[in-house]
Specification:
2 strands
Length: about 550
């Protein structure tokens, strides 16, 4: 028995963890129990040194002192404050009024607001449930295809996995030993490419199958001018002016940065985009505030509503990302600034009370403790797993895969895609990433690219029938029986589970397409990162002064 355990300790440990996870045992305790049990068995059998667990307390205290993980409660609190202060309802109502008059407008509003919620809440469950409660009844009221309505809601909710500042990316960076800022930069373009493809899909439906995504009727448009006009022309002109200012600033951002630093600067594309959008949002907010304060009447009602509802959370997000991308603030400092900004925004809008703040703090504490306990459990497990040479066992598993890097990436993506049906992303990140990262690094795979790829993959598994978590979240709030609509008085039929499943399929295909693009074109991720400086130690020369008889003087002159 001892000989069998000695030869197969790593696969036995891994199999035991998988068994406990599939049995529903709490993840943190399953990991810690397996690590401690097999560690003590190995010590008693003489296979492991008796001093094995002496460094474990230092590891646990190291986790609690990890500044990177401190960003998780800050970003969680920011998202929860914005969500519970009614931001989602206001955003959906406002953006729906803007896009509603065109076919597919409500679905586009759901996707864009979903992307914004993803950037603020960072939690899939919160985004999907909020969008389902607010937007699904409206889309059913005005005759949207149930499949398209459900698919748009669940797909936009899963964007919380990939859009910075995402909790997933913070955990990925910590587990891969990379900078959170670099992980945000790497995920920026793929995430917004995903949003753009979602929008293109809805626009295509509006053109070729308009009955599936009808426009809102005129009576549904509530924010009108006193003369009965929509006011959208004013919004269009203001949007063009704001975009022009952002574009001009973006085109000259490198020159501005060079003048400020005194040296030539070459900022990355994502940094230029974030800073240009930050300037645009600040201009829009200041211009609308001046117009309202001085009663100039330059902007229509819908234009003012868009600015005062949409711009503050956008400005907060771009401010947080901008400071992180510029290196002015660490992700933890950026998260703290975002949390304070969210509290101030809620207070200014008179949406902050003691109950809201208490609920947000309690939810933040629960999630933070959940993450911390899983990380402690995974650390205990990896401690013993490394002691029995588990990392070498994992490497040997992938040695025989054909195809080198591509074969490894395809296999890992398939495994994580399957595990995503059953495990939360925290569990996958804390259990699998420490095992896979050394193998990926040994194969010469950029770990930022690897992390973004896994984040997009887990987003796909959240949406895939029949076990996708996002589908269950929407099922929990979608109507299960017929009801009378309170606005139109019409009977609305319930939403079937099969309709939720069918609606997710096209969006899953879009996500798989983006995942394939990331594998084929790594530049989508690595192109946003700072160029790695490689130093050849063989070419380094140290020149010392030869005059003055000092340190660098030749031997014959009495120096050395």
């Amino acid at each position: 028995m001892i000989e069998f355990f000695s030869a197969n300790a790593a696969p036995v440990m891994f199999g035991a963890v998988i068994f406990f996870l599939l049995s529903g045992f709490p993840v943190a305790f399953a990991l810690a129990a397996c690590g401690l049990f097999f560690g003590f068995v190995g010590i008693e059998a003489g296979l492991l040194p008796s001093s094995l667990f002496q460094a474990l307390p230092l590891r646990v205290f190291g986790i609690m002192q990890n500044d990177t993980l401190l960003a998780i409660p800050f970003f969680t609190l920011m998202g929860l404050i914005l969500e519970r202060s009614g931001m989602a309802e206001d955003l959906l109502d406002t953006v729906g009024q803007v896009f509603g008059p065109v076919r597919g407008g409500l679905a586009l509003a759901v996707i864009f607001v979903g992307a914004l919620l993803a950037a603020t809440t960072g939690v899939v469950a919160a985004s999907v449930i909020s969008m389902g409660l607010i937007s699904l009844p409206i889309m059913l009221r005005y005759g949207y295809s149930r499949e398209i309505a459900c698919g748009a809601i669940t797909a936009s909710g899963t964007l919380a996995q990939a859009i910075p500042p995402s909790l997933v990316l913070i955990v990925m960076a910590d587990q891969l030993g990379r900078s959170v800022g670099d992980m945000y930069k790497g995920a920026f373009l793929p995430a917004f490419l995903l949003v753009a493809l979602y929008a293109i899909f809805i626009i295509g439906l509006a053109i070729f199958k308009p009955k599936l995504v009808p426009a809102l009727p005129p009576e549904a448009l509530t924010h009108r001018e006193p003369d009965g006009t929509s006011g959208l022309r004013s919004l269009l002109v203001f949007a063009v002016v704001t975009t022009a200012i952002s574009t001009v600033f973006g085109m000259n951002y490198a020159n501005i940065l060079s003048a400020m630093n005194g040296t030539e600067a070459k900022p990355a594309l994502d940094e230029i985009i974030v800073m240009a959008m930050s300037v645009g949002t600040i201009f829009a907010l200041v211009a609308a505030s001046v117009s309202r304060a001085l009663k100039l009447g330059l902007l229509s009602r819908i234009c003012q509503r868009v600015v005062f509802v949409l711009i503050p959370p956008l400005a907060l997000i771009f401010l947080v990302l901008g400071t992180i991308f510029l290196g002015v603030a660490t992700p933890t400092e950026g998260g703290a600034m975002g949390a304070v900004g969210a509290i101030l925004l809620a207070a200014v809008r008179k949406r902050l009370d003691l109950k809201t703040l208490t609920q947000a703090l309690e939810s933040t504490t629960r999630l933070s403790c959940f993450v911390l306990f899983i990380l402690i459990g995974s650390t205990i497990f990896s401690f013993t797993f490394t002691a029995v040479d588990g990392q070498h066992w994992v490497e040997h598993l992938f040695d025989k895969l054909p195809g080198g890097q591509i074969g490894f990436l395809i296999f890992v993506n398939v495994v994580i895609f399957a595990l995503g049906f059953f495990l939360d992303f925290f569990e996958i990140a804390f259990i699998l990433l420490p095992l896979l990262a050394p193998v990926a690094d040994k194969l010469g795979i950029d770990l930022i690219w690897f992390g973004v790829m896994i984040a997009i993959n887990m987003q796909t598994s959240f949406l895939t029938p029949p076990f996708g978590f996002a589908l269950f979240y929407l099922r929990s709030v979608a109507p299960v029986s017929a009801f009378l609509d309170r606005v139109t008085g019409k009977r609305i039929e319930p939403v079937k589970t099969t309709q939720i499943y069918r609606g997710s399929v096209p969006f899953v295909l879009i996500q798989i397409f983006v995942l394939a693009l990331i594998i084929i074109f790594p530049e989508l991720v690595t192109g946003s990162l700072d160029a790695e400086v490689k130093v050849d130690l063989d070419t380094i020369e140290i020149e010392a002064p030869t005059s003055g008889g000092g340190w660098g003087a030749p031997a014959e002159s009495g120096g050395w």
